[in-house]
Specification:
The protein has 14 helices and four strands. By secondary structure, it is mainly alpha-helical.
Length: 307
């Protein structure tokens, strides 16, 4: 690796940590090859094995730029996810609170298959609904939100529109997943998604992205084993024509976030900020735009602006 300023490199390694930065330069390492020139695969995941030699043109400063690029990406993703998370909470509270202020404690709103006991692979008895209820009870108990504290002091039951303020996105996502289909349909319609199974997968993927971004974990080239499902009858996704690689990487998530965000705020310029940032991605060996899910080296697809 080319290191132009050794003292600066030492400072950055001390500040950021060797292993955090190594995740950004790992794709720059040459593949290991056998005597015939074929790439050697790892024995566990059948992925190409990397050697200790970097590809020509690998610069420490560019690696650091990629690290900063990823940080800015995470900040932009959290900006969109925050607005979506707040909207989803509000819609769930409104749709269920209309029927019962304590709907989140009432198994009548839950899909019976999610409220039944079962044994997991280790023979342990489980109940998804009761496990979720305990999780949200713990979050509400720990919460110091003013609206929740007021209900406690007043010895009043905490209604769903207050309780949701204590839920993290994982709790929100799981609650939507275990609801009866009729409630899922109404919530999805309010969010502009006519297929609750698609929305369920989206919320799960967004929650994973949220957790990675909030805990400062690299996202720019992460790949999911479960590509995102799409609303195939929607003109937005038909125009984008996202392939499997796009749906399993950041591009697919950006497309989904923008789809949801547009329904919340038609005047949002979030996608322009994302496009501008992606245009600044540093050039490094082994770090193409396709690692983000884009088809070629042109980077950000213009179709997103027109969708």
């Amino acid at each position: 690796m080319q290191v132009d300023d050794r003292q600066r490199a030492q400072r950055k390694l001390a500040q950021v940590g060797y292993y955090r930065l190594s995740g950004f330069w790992f794709p720059c390492r040459d593949f290991l090859r056998d005597q015939s020139g074929h790439v050697i695969l790892t024995t566990d995941a059948l992925k190409p094995s990397r050697g200790e030699i970097f590809a020509a043109g690998t610069r420490f400063d560019a690696v650091l730029d990629l690290y900063i690029f990823d940080k800015k990406l995470r900040q932009l993703m959290l900006d969109a996810i925050e607005r979506i998370e707040v909207q989803v909470r509000s819609v769930i509270a409104h749709e269920l609170g209309y029927h019962d202020p304590l709907a989140y404690q009432n198994a009548d709103f839950i899909n019976p298959s999610q409220a039944s006991d079962y044994k997991d692979g280790r023979g342990k008895q489980r109940n998804i609904w009761r496990e979720w209820l305990k999780r949200q009870n713990d979050q509400v108990s720990r919460s110091r939100e003013d609206c929740i504290e007021w209900h406690r002091r007043s010895n009043k039951a905490i209604p769903i529109w207050a309780a949701v303020e204590a839920w993290d996105f994982g709790t929100v996502s799981k609650f939507f997943e275990i609801l009866k289909r009729s409630h899922q349909n109404r919530i999805g319609k309010r969010l502009g998604v006519n297929n609750p199974m698609v929305l369920k997968s989206w919320l799960q993927a967004i929650n994973t992205l949220r957790n990675r971004s909030a805990h400062h974990v690299r996202i720019w080239n992460q790949v999911s084993a479960n590509p995102l499902p799409l609303l195939e009858d929607d003109p937005y996704f038909r125009d984008l024509q996202l392939d499997r690689n796009a749906r399993g990487r950041l591009y697919g998530l950006i497309a989904v976030l923008w789809y949801l965000l547009k329904n919340i705020s038609a005047s949002s310029r979030w996608i322009c900020q994302v496009a501008e940032l992606i245009g600044t991605k540093p050039t490094l060996p082994g770090c193409p735009f396709s690692s983000m899910g884009f088809e070629d080296e042109e980077g950000f697809p213009r179709q997103l602006f027109d969708s």
